Amino acid sequence: MEQIKILVIGDSCTDVYVYGNCERLCPDAPVPVFVPCHIIKSGGMAANVCENLNALNLECDVITNKKEIEKKRLVEKKTNHMIIRIDSSDEKVDKIKNIKEINLKKYAAIVISDYDKGFLDEDDIQYLCKNHPLTFMDTKKRLGEWCEECTFIKINEVEFAKSKYFVDLYEEWIYDKLIITTGSEGCLHKGKKYPVKKVDVKDLSGAGDTFLAGLVCEYLRSGNIGSSIIFANECATIVVQKKGVCTTDNILKGKNNDH
Q1: pTM of this prediction exceeds 0.90
Q2: Which fold has domain 5-21+31-257?
Q3: How far is CA 26 from CA 22, 32, 81, 92, in A?
């Protein structure tokens, strides 16, 4: 693939996996005693999208929050069972400044990874979509008229349900943009189902970020949204079979090992 540059913009966090053993109950309360063994840290949310794109040989710039948000998971290493997730007490971050100073023209695509932690507001996203011809968005916000000029919008079933009133109201222009991921059923676009093969799911963390990266990568290569969804589904299907947050370099190795 010809070397091109992508801008990923949105909220980021640090994903922390603390793996350990649970072999007994606490004597003074009916809870497991967790003994940590090792810790794995990686960039999450927008940072994870960027890492996946880099692993797919796409050069990326990332604009994200400086304040660190941490998502810590305690995981029993034998079963890969997550005992608890502990998030930072303050999950809101400072809003981006001077968004209009970004030179959007030097990027082949803008990837908006909006986890609704405060880094981007609706006006910011509307500005990005108005001023670049190819924008991909994954957002936790309820959809509105501010997303009208976004090229493609990736949301999951829960997010779609929250925005369904708006989607029904403006179906004439939003219908073609929506890519709705439906978990083990794959995803939907323009009424067409894109199924995925049934696999043993070990961890869903980061699967949406991987899907988005795969979607962008293949669309830049082919310009075909159907083949892009198929490739994104393949990437996400492989990553959910791995422990923890897995980037696309590991995914592609897994795909190669299957042949």
Answers
A1: no
A2: UDP-N-acetylmuramoyl-L-alanine:D-glutamate ligase (3.40.1190)
A3: 10, 6, 18, 34
